[in-house]
From TrEMBL, chain A:
Main subcellular localisation: periplasm
Protein's name according to its UniProt entry: Cytochrome c peroxidase
Native source organism of the sequence: Flavobacterium endophyticum
GO cellular component: periplasmic space
Cofactor names: heme
Binding note for cofactor: Binds 2 heme groups.
Keyword list, A-Z: Heme, Iron, Metal-binding, Oxidoreductase, Periplasm, Peroxidase, Signal
Amino-acid positions noted as binding heme c 1 in the UniProt annotation, renumbered to this chain: C75, C78, H79
Automatic annotation (TrEMBL), chain B:
Superkingdom as given in the UniProt entry: Bacteria
Protein name: Copper-binding protein MbnP-like domain-containing protein
Organism: Flavobacterium endophyticum
Domain Copper-binding protein MbnP-like: 36-234
Keywords from the named record: Signal
Signal peptide annotation: 1-23
Length: 347, 277
């Protein structure tokens, strides 16, 4: 395994006792380990290298409803660990006052290996992206300044911020940094599939799963590429647009007509746990997703050429092949990740 | 040895400076190691007229605009001497907002090395490098920008120019005289980098000395945004309902980025201690 360790010269490391002789916990840099079968991270981790205390602070924030206007909606409300940090069972996630959003909450995992966030790529910075859900009127409907005022009143936060950052401040910048550190460390790479490709114990795939893998490599892996299962690009996979939403996808951000109906290719890690599927959560099962690729693809503006290579649009698959692909996709479930106490905050 | 020579040179320069002060004020050489302040004043206008919020202006596209908001970010200031040597203002402090609504028109630079400057360089907006370093690097500026309506929160970036108001179209140009809202939010996004830099000659040398602050008076022409080298017609950018025009993405942002390279000119420079208008 490749290993990158960032050493931080955090001043607080130097002193283990403060003026009152009280014991102060030491902040440690955390190892950011790149799984052997992963590509290099896209984000420059040295901008915001995770430390023990920064990570713990980020985790606490991720689970804290005070980041929303009415104190009820935390990041974890829509990104639940048991379903790989998605909003289980909701096609559209709902936020404060039970208002509904327009998109389905994607998994939060392996974020440092991705360059663009949200289905339309509204952000390219792991540190800045939390600004979006925090301000969204149908998600958390808050602002950074007001959150910082709330956190400053809580002695537990005041202590954690002072341990995690050299300038010791409870500030919106440090808050976003801590959330970024938590998300940087959320790496999912220990599914049965990973063990299989890394030749590790427990890494066996059945004949059906292996057939599914072969079918996946021929038909799906150009878009759902590498062991991250995304090529980090925006593409139109031929979903008929929902007339009630008319979600333009990537065009919303760029304004270019050639981006219409293109959405970020999602990673398929833990996909068996993340139903419903697609940006608007229109499909309730993997079977429906495969039915769509086999016979539901529509020729809308900018349909990806990869889905126009056969006599009929999409990817021809019979039921036996669909089942094999689904069996393979289920090997991407990483039980360790979804039950790891490191990513769960207990009060 | 070297440093001692430098010190002597410095002393010499200083004594020369002091000696010459009384006799010939304009010809004084700057004292080594000393510094002063520089002030830039941004005078907003529209094609030669003063910009006044609420006033109407007709452009060559046959559109009459009333501005209600005109705010922009200027950044990354560099002062350039005759020999081409540059002084780059510290990056973390080099982001400023000019806001017609709140009457914020000046950029104040501190601790600029004493010298005679012939050109200035600055950016319109926020460069990608700083953006990608995350919010922390931008902390105090983010808060300022948020307070000035210069942040995007549905995505995570800065508005470089925020220009809003209402407009009507001359029927001869294919429009109608209904008054509609317009909104121009210039900026970069994850697809296009629309930050641009301009280099401007100073008509008079800006003399920076300890206790002597040149005031560089710039004119900004809001007209070039839509009516510059490449024209953008608001009535071709109406929303689906036809009730307002909004320019926030796409090709238009690249056009505006290039048009605004001609938005600024230096009108004059005042030299002398603490000169204000």
């Amino acid at each position: 395994m490749k290993k990158i360790v960032y050493f931080l010269s955090i001043l607080s490391v130097l002193s283990c006792q403060d003026d009152n002789g009280e014991y102060i916990e030491i902040d440690q840099p955390l190892d950011f380990i790149i799984p052997a079968n992963f590509p290099e991270p896209v984000q420059d981790i040295s901008y915001n290298a995770p430390t023990q205390k920064g990570f713990e602070l980020g985790r606490k924030l991720f689970y804290d409803g005070r980041l929303s206007r009415d104190g009820t909606v935390s990041c974890s409300f829509c990104h639940e660990q048991a379903s790989a940090f998605t909003h289980h069972g909701h096609d559209f996630s709902h936020g404060v006052d039970n208002l509904e959003g327009l998109r389905n909450a994607p998994a939060v995992q392996n974020m440092a290996f991705q360059g663009e966030y949200f289905y339309d790529g509204a952000s390219s910075s792991l540190e800045m992206l939390s600004i979006v859900p925090i301000h969204n009127p149908v998600e958390m409907d808050e602002n950074l300044e007001s959150i910082v005022l709330k956190l400053k009143q809580d002695p537990v936060y005041v202590k954690l911020f002072s341990q995690a950052f050299a300038n010791k401040e409870v500030s919106s910048g440090n808050m976003l940094k801590a959330l970024g550190q938590f998300m940087t460390m959320m790496v999912s790479a220990n599914s049965r599939y990973d063990k299989y490709v890394r030749n590790e114990a427990g890494g066996t795939l059945s004949t059906q799963e292996l057939q599914g893998r072969a079918l996946f490599q021929t038909n799906c892996a150009t878009c759902h590429a590498t062991d991250l299962f995304t090529d980090n690009k925006f593409r139109n996979n031929g979903l008929p647009p929902n007339p009630n939403l008319n979600d333009l996808g990537r065009e919303t951000v760029t304004g270019f007509a050639y981006d219409r109906y293109k959405f970020k290719v999602p990673s398929l890690r833990n996909v068996a746990l993340t139903a419903p599927y697609m940006h608007d959560g229109r499909f309730g099962s993997l079977q429906s997703v495969l039915n769509f690729y086999a016979s539901g693809v529509q020729n809308t503006q900018n349909l990806d050429p990869l889905l126009q290579q056969h006599p009929t649009l999409g990817i021809p698959l019979n039921q036996q092949e669909k089942e094999a692909i689904i069996a393979f996709l289920k090997t991407l479930t990483d039980e360790e990740f979804v039950s790891n106490p490191l990513f769960y905050f207990r009060t | 040895m070297k440093s001692r020579l430098k010190n002597i040179a410095g002393l010499l320069a200083l004594s020369l400076f002091i000696n010459s002060c009384s006799s010939d004020d304009n010809g004084s050489a700057p004292a080594d190691g000393t510094s002063g302040d520089v002030e830039l004043f941004f005078d907003n206008g529209v094609a030669g007229d003063a910009l006044m919020l609420g006033n109407s202006y007709t452009n060559s596209n046959g559109e009459t605009l009333i501005f209600e908001r005109f705010t922009y970010i200027v950044s990354n200031f560099v002062l350039i001497k005759e020999d081409g040597s540059e002084f780059t203002y510290p990056k973390n402090e080099s982001y400023f907002i000019i806001n017609e609504e709140t009457g914020q028109f000046t950029v104040h630079l501190e601790n600029v090395p004493a010298g005679d400057y012939k050109k200035i360089k600055f950016g319109i907006g926020v460069d990608q490098q700083r953006y990608l370093q995350g919010e922390t690097a931008q902390q105090s500026f983010w808060d300022l920008a948020f307070a000035n309506n210069m942040t995007w929160t549905w995505s995570t970036g800065y508005r470089f120019i925020n220009c809003q108001g209402t407009f009507t179209v001359d029927p001869a140009h294919g429009g109608d005289t209904t008054s509609r809202g317009f909104m121009i939010h210039q900026g970069s996004n994850t697809a296009t980098d629309n930050y641009r830099e301009v280099v401007l000659n100073l008509p008079t040398t800006a003399r920076v000395r300890e206790g002597e602050m040149p005031n560089i008076h710039l004119k900004s022409d809001a007209n070039v945004i839509l009516d510059g080298d490449t024209k953008i017609e608001l009535h071709h950018n109406l929303n689906g309902a036809g009730t307002a025009a909004s320019i926030m993405a796409g090709e238009n942002l690249i056009t505006i980025a290039n048009n605004t390279k001609k938005m600024f000119t230096v009108d004059h420079v005042h030299n002398g201690a603490g000169t204000h208008h």
